């Protein structure tokens, strides 16, 4: 199973990604987590990554691809992945599609988690301070929504045109969201989707 989760901040990519990966027996690859780990590890790009993340700006594609490509390649060889937060720009989506072609694999579905910004902002403010994240502050949260609307949102029509978009109402309890995702995947008639 090869899936990706497309969603504004706070929509539950992490929660649903973990569940879907466990359900389908593949690796959950969370771009934000991998980049935060890279920033912590103090590699050459660490300071730059930390700065972009704390401002709520997208980390440049070259850095993102350097971190994500090995993880995606390894997971693809072991049965698949649930990508959470990657790709996030049209150029990343094109790079991801090229990688998939090179590896001889295709994406089965792109799951779009949708919820009103006011609901998502409240969730992020409620969790602020819990995860040790520098970007769960009101002004940075507003900026992350703007980045989603201006950049990542373009991936919704991109995957819709490819016939693999599953849109789910994320303004529901986590179990209901998971059930709707599973129903949406079944409707696409995917391998292992029941
Ligand atoms: P959220 O979706 O709640 O903002 P993430 O952990 O997915 O949380 O992302 C946090 C931050 O990590 C982003 O604001 C951005 O700085 C960086 N990031 C994550 N994924 C990408 C990506 N694919 N491209 C560029 N930057 C990314």
Annotation keywords:
alpha/beta, 194 residues, single chain, 5-stranded parallel β-sheet, binds adenosine-5'-diphosphate
Summarize the model shown.
With 194 residues, the protein is of the alpha/beta class.
Provide a descriptive summary of the structure in words.
The chain is an alpha/beta fold. It contains nine helices and five strands. It has helices spanning about 15-25, 30-40, 45-55, 60-75, 90-105, 115-125, 140-150, 155-160, 175-185; strands spanning about 1-5, 25-30, 80-85, 110-115, 165-170. Strands 2-3-1-4-5 form a five-stranded parallel sheet, with helices on both faces. Adenosine-5'-diphosphate binds next to helix 2 and helix 3.
Q: What is the residue-averaged pLDDT?
A: 94
The total strand number stands at: 5
| Assembly level | single chain
* Rg over alpha carbons: 16 Å
Please report the distance between the alpha carbons of the first and last residues.
Answer: 12 Å
The main sheet comes to: 5 strands, parallel
From the spread of the alpha carbons, the general shape counts as globular
Structural class: alpha/beta
What percent strand?
5-15%
DSSP summary: helix tally: 9
Adjacency order of strands in the biggest sheet: 2-3-1-4-5
Cofactors, ions and other ligands in the entry: adenosine-5'-diphosphate
H/E element string?
Answer: EHEHHHEHEHHHEH
Q: How much helical structure, as a percent, in the residues?
A: 55-70%
Low-pLDDT segments: none
């Amino acid at each position: 199973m090869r899936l990706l989760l497309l969603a504004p901040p706070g929509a539950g990519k992490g929660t649903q990604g973990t569940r879907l990966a466990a359900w389908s027996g593949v690796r959950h690859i969370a771009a934000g987590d991998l980049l935060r780990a890279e920033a912590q590890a103090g590699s050459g790009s660490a300071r730059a990554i930390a700065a972009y993340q704390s401002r709520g700006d997208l980390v440049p594609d070259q850095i993102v691809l350097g971190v994500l490509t090995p993880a995606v390649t390894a997971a693809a060889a072991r049965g698949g992945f649930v990508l959470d937060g990657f790709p996030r720009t049209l150029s990343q989506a094109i790079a991801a599609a090229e990688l998939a072609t090179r590896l001889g694999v295709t994406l089965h579905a792109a799951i779009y988690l949708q919820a009103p910004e006011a609901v998502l902002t409240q969730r992020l403010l409620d969790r602020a301070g819990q995860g040790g994240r520098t970007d769960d502050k009101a002004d940075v949260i507003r900026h992350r929504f703007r980045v989603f609307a201006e950049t990542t949102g373009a991936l919704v029509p991109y995957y819709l045109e490819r016939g693999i978009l599953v849109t789910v109402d994320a303004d529901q309890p986590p179990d209901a969201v998971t059930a709707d995702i599973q129903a949406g995947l079944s409707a696409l008639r995917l391998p292992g989707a029941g």
